[in-house]
Design brief:
There is one protein chain. The strands form nine sheets. The protein has an eight-stranded mixed beta sheet, with no helix packed on it. Strands 17-18-19-21-20 form a five-stranded mixed beta sheet, with helices on one face. A four-stranded mixed beta sheet has the order 30-26-25-32, with no helix packed on it. Among the domains are: 186 residues, tricorn interacting facor f3 domain (Immunoglobulin-like, Sandwich), CATH 2.60.40.1730; 133 residues, Neutral Protease Domain 2 (Neutral Protease, domain 2); 113 residues, Sandwich (Immunoglobulin-like), CATH 2.60.40; 130 residues, Peptidase M1, alanyl aminopeptidase, C-terminal domain (Zincin-like fold), CATH 1.25.50.10. The protein is 41% helix and 21% strand. It is globular, with a radius of gyration of 28 Å. The chain is α+β, with helices and mostly antiparallel strands. The structure holds (3S)-3,7-diaminoheptanoic acid and zinc ion. The site of zinc ion has 4 residues, from helix 3.
Length: 869
């Protein structure tokens, strides 16, 4: 039944032709844009030339200036083929495309009034016939013609060569990018924008023009992005020695975009969500996201653009590494612990989930039908963890030595993950053969640890096992860095002595686990010390280790590393929740735990960290701890019970925290952000402790009305809506009235309602789908309402399947309009194996219905087949 063919990593062949230069000429028109593409091509092996093309209409084809007749080439659905070509030749292709009907938002499309492009992974073939693969690197020159009034800005990659008005009311611009690049990094924008300008002087003294283009009226909201860009440029010079290499760096913000942003050479195109931010319309988290995505796309200039991927199976080469780099950047810009915790939560709630799904894949997949399906938390975030483990094993200096070797060897090339790891290995004279399994093996390793007292200290026995994933039944043991520390009962760090341990620069000890089972003997003055294992989440594994509550409380109160304290709290909550699930009881906070949490409220540590440690794992995270079927209803119940008991336990300190950390006046500093996170959490718990008190409603109402920033305003709204306070409806109405003209803020209004972990959320979502501001055409809106709902374990999986049906209907429509977005949504439906029988049956039936769609997109087909087969 499968119509779309899978590609295999093992089938890679070097290209038979190379393209040295490309001249593109665009004549922009809404429904019929003409593209003239002139390529200087060299043949490297005796094979026909096969150019990719999709949704393009071929008009003319010239070989060395001669117009070719249809019998001189073969044209099939997605391929243009030519034979008997000379060693070197010039091929010109003229195509016509229809940007205004391009709702898939791939290739050249319209976002509101502007033309823009998205070519990664395989979107360039929707513009012209081309060798659309990342290992074909060419120098691009782009000429754009368009109506001068409607499109005052005509932009493409590289440097502006010429720009002028023509007599016929049109304008033209020529751009030249001297850096050879694959087509996926090509970009074009034409539109009418507001622009903000700045400059950056590089470490070697070159001046770079910085420009950010936004919709009219939004210029003020782009300054934070500009400051972030400058910080990212400086940071990359200082930390990695990478300097920017063109005279201009442009960022364009558009409202219609499938992903977060795109690192096109010299011309990034961004989802406006990651550019626009001011106090009134963006939350603190939005500011943090803007800085991290601006950094991420900028960092791609070296890790992705100058050194690119040989083939798409190597995607993690650039994405895992660039996520690692953006995480390091964000950490350096404010609190490392807070950023690290956020990254750990992403792995535990989303990546572990993906590993347990039918689409589980290694960070370097072996088999792909639709590449867009592999821009995943596994490739990105687990990919970053795999880089981080190398950093852990080699140390900062060793890692940087490896990075320098990688850059020196491969600048200007299209390479593989193997090339990266080899550079790390050779620069450090280390053997990383076993470590390579992290690239090839899918799934989350489980590591079980047993602790035994000895006369001179203790032993630790580690047992590792990785569950089977689709297509991979036999798993080999991984090379796992384990960072650990030991404490005595008073929270004093204990020195440890063992051949198996080395002191690590992070202040923990490092043990390298390599075998399926390994026992290490440690000399220590305590025989039963309190252990912190996998500190700083030193490997993306699930730890199985019995630890008494008393020990966890020691770590919570005293551990030297902030992430370890947070981790202790998480383990405490998780144990309580799992026990409650197992015995069908309510989670019970012991007296000791209650006083530990009370003390934590007033502890002398970063308020943001306190806020994080006071939040138990979400229902979705808890589900990842369940080995059998996911008990949806029970998870809902115990999560709520634990939240309420924490709320009662810390209501008094929360009353103080709320007052103490509320900011008189808005500021955007790390301290102010941390203070807001704690005061807003205090507001939430205070409200959860007394949801029926008029005083609670008044407090939330006041908080909402007095807010001089969106973080506080939205926190009040979230509290009211999530706790289903009687004032929720009124606040929702006020919020919508105030923000109806601001799409990004309205996305939050949709999301907050889809997040409520209650049965009624299903009907709410159904109504919201009919809201005049809801549209399936805008990915941000779809993600805000539907993807949020799909992640809401408790409501989405409501017993009667109503949530599933709503979803399926939306996916059917998106299958024809925007398959990429459809495929992102379908994930929760494909995980039927993990839910009860009735749910399984219904989900399979719905997936089967989808599979029968006459025009089923490759994106959906791949995921549905993985799920049903
Ligand atoms: N490289 C782009 C993602 C492209 C998505 C293609 N479907 C953004 C990023 O990771 O920086
Ligand atoms: Zn990226």
């Amino acid at each position: 039944m499968s119509q779309h063919v899978a590609k295999l990593r093992s089938d890679y062949r070097a290209p038979a032709y190379v393209i040295d230069t490309v001249e593109l000429e665009f004549h922009l028109h809404d429904s019929a844009t003409r593209v003239l593409n002139t390529m200087h091509i060299r043949r490297v092996s005796e094979q026909p030339l096969q150019l990719n093309g999709e949704h393009v209409q071929l008009v003319n084809l010239w070989l060395d200036g001669h117009l070719l007749q249809p019998h001189e080439y073969q044209l099939s659905a997605n391929l243009l083929q030519l034979q008997n070509l000379p060693e070197q030749f010039v091929l010109s292709v003229e195509t016509v495309i229809n940007p205004s009907e391009n709702s898939a938002l791939e290739g050249l499309y319209k976002s509101a009034g502007a033309f823009c492009t998205q070519c990664e992974a395989e979107g360039f073939r929707r513009i012209s016939y081309y060798l659309d693969r990342p290992d074909v690197l060419a120098v691009f020159t782009t000429t754009i013609y368009a109506d001068a009034k409607q499109f005052p800005y005509l932009l493409s990659n590289g440097n502006l060569i010429e720009q002028r008005h023509l007599d016929d009311g049109r304008a033209m611009a020529i751009w030249h990018d001297p850096h050879p690049k694959p087509a996926y990094l090509f970009a074009l924008v034409a539109g009418d924008f507001d622009r903000i300008d700045d400059v950056f002087v590089t470490q070697s003294g070159r001046t770079v023009q910085l420009q950010i283009y936004v919709d009219h009226g939004n210029a003020e909201r782009a300054h934070y992005a500009m400051q972030s860009l400058k910080r990212a440029m400086r940071w990359d010079e200082q930390r990695f020695g990478y300097e920017y290499d063109l005279d201009i760096y442009m960022i364009v913000a558009v409202d219609f975009f499938n992903m977060g942003a795109m690192e096109n050479k010299g011309l990034n195109i961004f989802n406006s969500k990651y550019v626009l931010a001011d106090a009134k319309t963006a939350t603190d988290q939005d500011f943090i996201n803007v800085e991290s995505v601006i950094g991420h796309e900028y960092f791609h200039n070296w890790t992705g653009n100058r050194i690119t991927c040989r083939d798409w199976f190597q995607l993690s080469l650039k994405e895992g590494l660039t996520v690692f780099r953006d995480q390091e950047f964000s950490a350096d810009m404010s609190s490392p612990a807070v950023h690290r915790i956020q990254a750990i939560k992403v792995i535990r709630s989303h990546q572990f989930n993906e590993d347990a799904s039918p689409m589980a894949h290694p960070i370097r997949p072996d088999k792909v039908v639709e590449m867009n399906n592999f821009y995943t938390v596994t490739v990105y975030n687990k990919g970053a963890e795999v880089i981080r483990m190398q950093h852990c094993l080699l140390g900062e200096q060793g890692f940087m030595r490896g990075m320098r070797a990688y850059t020196e060897r491969h600048d200007g090339q299209a390479v593989t993950c193997e090339d990266f790891i080899r550079a790390m290995e050779q620069a450090n004279d280390r053997d990383l053969s076993q470590f390579r399994r992290w690239y090839s093996q899918a799934g989350t390793p489980h590591v079980q640890v047993e602790q035994q007292a000895t006369a001179t200290g203790f032993t630790l026995t580690f047992t590792q096992q990785t569950p089977a994933t689709p297509g991979q039944t036999d798993k080999q043991p991984q090379h796992i860095p384990v960072l650990l520390s030991a404490y005595d009962a008073n929270g004093e760090l204990l020195p440890l002595y063992s051949d198996a341990l080395v002191r690590h620069e992070s202040a923990s000890y490092l043990f390298e686990l390599r075998e399926r089972q390994q026992t290490i003997t440690i000399t220590c003055r305590e025989q039963r010390p309190v252990l912190a294992l996998f500190e700083n989440f030193s490997a993306p594994v699930k730890l199985e280790y019995q630890q008494h509550e008393a020990d966890l409380l020691v770590l919570l109160a005293h551990a030297k590393q902030p992430v370890t304290r947070w981790e202790a709290a998480q383990r405490l909550y998780t144990e309580l929740l799992l026990e409650a699930l197992q015995h069908n009881t309510a989670p019970q906070l012991s007296d000791a735990a209650v006083s530990a949490l009370q003390q934590l409220c007033g502890a002398d540590i970063d308020p943001a960290l306190r806020a994080l440690a006071l939040v138990p794992p979400s229902p979705e995270e808890l589900a990842e701890h369940c080995s059998g079927l996911i008990p949806v209803e029970q998870i809902a119940v115990v999560s709520r019970q634990l939240r309420d008991s924490i709320a009662y336990a810390i209501a008094a300190p929360c009353a103080q925290l709320y007052v103490r950390y509320r900011q008189a006046q808005y500021q955007l500093s790390a301290e102010a952000i941390a203070a807001r996170s704690l005061s807003n959490l205090a507001l939430y718990y205070l409200s959860a402790a007394a949801p029926n008190d008029a005083a609670t409603w008044q407090r939330v109402m006041r908080h909402y009305q007095q807010a001089d920033n969106l973080t506080d305003q939205y926190a009040a709204l979230q509290t009211a809506v999530h706790l289903q306070l009687p004032i929720a409806a009124q606040l929702l109405t006020e919020f919508a009235e105030q923000w109806q003209q601001q799409p990004l803020v309205m996305d939050k209004w949709f999301a907050v309602q889809a997040q409520v972990p209650a049965a009624e959320t299903v009907e709410r979502v159904e109504q919201l789908l009919q809201h005049p501001l809801f549209t399936l055409a805008n990915p941000n809106r779809v993600y805000a309402l539907l993807a949020t709902f799909g992640r809401n374990l408790v409501s989405f999986h409501r017993q009667d399947g109503a949530g599933y049906r709503i979803f399926t209907a939306a996916i059917k429509q998106l299958n024809s309009s925007n398959p990429q977005v459809a495929a992102r949504l379908i994930t929760p439906l494909t995980q039927w194996q993990r839910f009860s029988n009735e749910r399984q049956q219904l989900l399979r039936q719905l997936l089967t219905e989808l599979r029968q769609l006459p025009n089923l997109a490759a994106d959906l087909e791949e995921k549905i087949n993985a799920s049903l087969n």
